Structures are given as C-alpha cells and as structure tokens.
Amino acid sequence: METDSTAKAHQVMTHNPICCLPTDTAQHVAALLRDNDIGAVPVVKDHFSRKLVGIITDRDLCCAVVAAGLEAKALVIRPMLSKNPIQCHFEDDLEKCMEAMERYQVRRLPIVDDQGRCVGIISQADLALRAKPASVSRVVTSISQIGKQSTSAA
Predict the structure, then answer these.
(1) Which residues in 115-128 are b (16+ Cβ under 10 Å) and which e?
(2) Strands across the sheet containing 52-57
(3) For the chain, which residues make up each domain, given as ranges?
(4) N or C: which end of the chain has fewer CB within 10 A?
C-alpha cells in the first residue's frame, strides 16, 4: 500500500509497540529486541500510563553493556536510554514525521497521543511498506548521512 505524505502518523505507524521500563535490565531489553525482531524499544514510565520517557536501541545496549564488558543481568537501562526522544503525535502528517526523522537522523520515531502515551512507532521499515518510494529514499538517504548533527537518535 502506497501512502502519500498527507497520510497521518496513525495510518503508517506500528500500533501498540513493545515497550520497556527504565528499571528493566539490559538483558531483559536485549531479549525483547531479539524476540520481537526490532531495533529499538520505547521506554515508558509504567505499563499502565505508557507515558514516554525515552527510547533504547540495540546499539545503545551494545555500546554501553557489551563493549564495556558489563553484566547485562544486573544492569538497569535507565542510565543508557535516550531521554526526551524525538517524537510525533498520532495525528501529525506523515510528512512532518519524515522531516523529524531526517532532521534528527533517527530510524525510529515514537508516536504519542494527547496525554504523551506511547501509542505507536514509525520505523524505516514502516515507511518502506507504506510510503511512496521517493519519500522513503529521501528519508533513508538523509538519516544515513555521516556528520549531520543528531539528537536522541534511535
């Protein structure tokens, strides 16, 4: 299904993404990433409110835990997650979401509702499946440029 840039985030996003807590261990989060074949997990205050507080990626875990030779079973993820991640609202136009992904060079973009609850996530794969090829190419090219300033990359 090809979607044009006037689509809304909720039409493209993966709904109800797997989330974790700041108090979860690195081993638990790594297992979530592996078992669900995903590269990032939104971090929420608690599973009831699902208030977005951060995001953690497979790269975050690799660099902070594996490369440092730390014990993943005992290490909570709070210090290694990206706080205040770049995010969009579920009613935002897809074009706004893609521009945020380009500007901040993030491969995954949490989507929140009016209360700041994580209700979805847009990944490069979601764009590849649902956006026009030219838009996907533009976003992926921009995200992949070396040397651009990046904030809370996912």
Answers:
(1) ebbbbbbbbbebbe
(2) 40-44, 52-57, 82-83
(3) 9-144
(4) N
- Phi-psi group of 59: left, alpha or beta (phi > 0 → left; psi -120 to 50 → alpha; rest → beta): alpha
Q: Which residues contact 71 (CB under 8 A, 6 or more apart)?
A: none
DSSP SS3 for 117 = strand
Q: State percent of the chain over pLDDT 90.
A: 86
Q: What CATH number was assigned to the domain covering residues 9-144?
A: 3.10.580.10
Q: 3-class DSSP state for residue 84?
A: coil
Report the C-alpha gap between 112 and 102 in whole angstroms. Answer: 19
Q: Tell me, what's the pLDDT at 33?
A: 97
Q: Answer yes or no: are the C-beta atoms of 13 and 42 closer than 8 Å.
A: no
Answer whether 109's CB lies under 8 Å from 121's CB: yes
Q: Of 59, 25, 12, which Cα lies nearest the Cα of 40?
A: 59
Which residues make Cβ contacts (< 8 Å) with residue 135, sequence separation at least 6? Answer: 5, 98, 127
